[in-house]
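Issue 218. Parser rejects a valid record. Input:
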Amino acid sequence: MGVAISAIVTFWVAYLIYKKYKPQPVLVVGGFALMWLAVFLGYGTILAPKASTGSLLFDTFEFMRKVMSSRAAGLGLNIMAVGGFARYMDKIGASRALVRMTIKPLMMLKSPYVVLAGTWIVGMCIGLCINSASGLAMLLMVTMFPILIGLGVSRIAATAAVASTLCFDWSPSDTGTILSAQTAGIDPVIYWHHYQVPIVMVAFVVVGILFFLSQKYMDKMDGHVVKPMEVEKADEESDHAPGWYALLPIVPLALILCFSPLWITTVKVNIINAMTIGLAIGMLCEFLRRRDMKRVFDDVQIFFDGLGMQMANVVTLIVAGQVFAQGLMSMGTIDTLIKGSQNMGFGPMAMMVVMVAIISVSSIVMGSGNAPFFAFAALTPDVAMKMGVAPVLFLLPMHFAASIARTCSPITAVIVVASGMGKVSPFDLIKRTAIPMIGAMICNVVITMIYYNIGW
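Output the parser choked on:
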């Protein structure tokens, strides 16, 4: 009965998010409903007796308060700092300079579809510094897209490569990476280096080849003729940032990697320190470039605006996801599913595949990778413990599955943005991203299983 109620509420939540209802209140309302039903039906409790307020109604709000206070002070502050720094780099033109610098080697290649596959790989590398899929897509659409069209690639093939460039959220400063690492009890850099990198390295080869083969074949099937043409230079608006500004977005990443357990251990630099140091260096460079202190100080407001935007959009989503997850836990849904899977003979890998499938379908339906992953991430340690594996080995493929599946949704931000700028249909676009993303998903699951020796 508890599983059936949970399934109905979960479907209702997914349906409302699909209909573009704001996910935070939807997840919170769904979580509250599950908590109250769990208590009324005798399935579980909301808070431990000692932590209870004495009122069922107030207990739900007390749980949300505790989650919000813990997340905002720790994980939330990291995410806010990353978002603020990214906004400042975009403001001063450093993000665009980084893209211009990294795409130059691709222009030396003569095969249009090799350049297209290379665009995806380079975009993935830039994604280490620019964590927004839609933001990165916009930068590549005004820089690399015209080059691909000029080489003779079809408009929809070029858009597909650009829209998929961050199908793996694999940066140490990515919000999902930070959440996964903290949930698994691992340093974000170690999580990135030991767990994410091996999978992405294989995906570079597999997905790159799939982009080359699938887009070339589909262009041919559509009757597209590869004919190089002259195109106008991409509009760079008023951005005239010098080329060396491309180094500025890399500063925090370099600090995080250098002063970590991977290299220099005598000095500790956390994510917030790295972002604020990067901000300070960016301000100094802007002052030396413009010689206008008032303008430099005024531009810093974009960093603070970025903090607020991340708090409003990402941190609140994590809190809402945990409230919904607590509702599922209170109903005993996860325990029931685990016991049922064990009774059916499911081992750790089979359970991981089930969870990856749930996350993938949710991401496509919701048009978001973060919403379903943030909702289910909090449940993962308990599931992993009961299956006898480390939580990271469930969190890793679930995290990647969410970002991969997001790229196959016609309503997700990056697909909508890229299709709009490329003047193609988002539904036609996801037909072009589907084959490479299936390859990415197979890499995600199979490499996790083989590399970390997880049994069925």
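Fixed in the parser; the record now loads. Confidence is low (pLDDT under 50) at residues 230-238.
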